[in-house]
Design goal:
Blueprint (H helix, E strand, L loop, with lengths): L13 E5 L4 H12 L3 E6 L2 H11 L3 E5 L5 H15 L4 E4 L15 H29 L2 E6 L12 H21 L4 E8 L7 H5 L4 H9 L9 H12 L10 E4 L6
Parallel strand pairs: 1-2, 1-4, 2-3, 4-5, 5-6, 6-7
Helix pairs in contact: 1-2, 1-8, 3-4, 4-5
Length: 255
């Protein structure tokens, strides 16, 4: 993904990346591997996860997993410890949204899926990952939140709310887990080239894209590499004193 050879900022570390088959997750998986990490690529799309892991090579394994399932979460962690012997970095990146539109048009099934993927999955991950990291002397948990948590867009109320929850959970987890040397941070990307972009916009048209770009001072949507580089820094020892942060990766959108 990057143009320069990695400098091993994650050498010796093992990471799980959920939603790793595409978009931001694939970007993080590739970037982490470039920097020396071993990576478990986890995604509901198991074949997509295998494709990403295959491109990375021997330093990656793939697993088909639903982050809303405790059993699947346990399987992800087992894949890390069985294949690579430890787990240092947990990336809660998998996400779900409803189509941009009136809040009253979102049915309960969609709302429940947003809740389980965007919120409950963080609970499952914490329950399973924290004991492993504590036994190793520490670790890093990073969740993909959104600028929607900080500057909500109209038409995405329930998605916005789930990401606001994510930011609050991140800060509370950071305080509680600090004595265990487990850092907890989240990323707040602006809309980018991912599979959910059309849902965020309501419809994917040149006019809608131009409207979204116009709301971003740097004048473009985010890319997987933008988010991957931010996650890389938070996961690395360079950010050893950083916890409880909701890092805006947004081209100035939240200003």
């Amino acid at each position: 993904m990057s143009k320069e050879k990695g400098v091993d900022r994650l050498k010796g570390k093992v990471a799980i990346v959920t939603g790793g088959a595409s978009g931001f997750g694939a970007g993080m998986a590739f970037r982490f591997a470039e920097e020396g990490a071993k990576v478990v690529v986890a995604d509901l799309n198991g074949e997509g996860a295998k494709a990403v892991a295959s491109k990375i090579g021997e330093s990656a394994v793939a697993i088909g997993a639903d982050v809303s399932s405790r059993a699947d979460t346990e399987a992800m962690v087992k894949a890390a410890t069985d294949n690579f012997g430890r787990l240092d970095i947990m990336i809660n990146n998998a996400g779900y949204t409803h189509l941009n539109g009136p809040m009253t048009d979102v049915d309960e099934e969609i709302f429940d899926r947003i809740y389980t993927v965007n919120m409950k999955a963080i609970y499952h991950a914490a329950q399973v990952v924290v004991p492993v990291m504590e036994s190793q002397g520490g670790g890093s948990i990073i969740t993909t939140a959104s600028t929607a948590a900080l500057r909500p867009r109209p038409g995405l109320t329930w998605y916005n709310a789930s990401k606001g929850w994510t930011v609050t959970a991140t800060k509370s987890m950071a305080v509680e887990l600090a004595p265990k040397n487990i850092r907890v941070n989240c990323l707040c990307p602006v809309a980018g080239e991912t599979g959910m972009l059309a849902s965020f916009m309501g419809e994917d048209t040149p006019e809608k894209r131009a409207m979204f770009r116009a709301s971003i001072p740097l004048g473009r949507l985010s890319t997987p590499l933008d988010i991957a580089n931010a996650a890389l820094w938070l996961a690395s020892d360079e950010a050893a004193f950083i916890t409880g942060v909701a890092l805006e990766v947004d081209g100035g959108r939240c200003i």
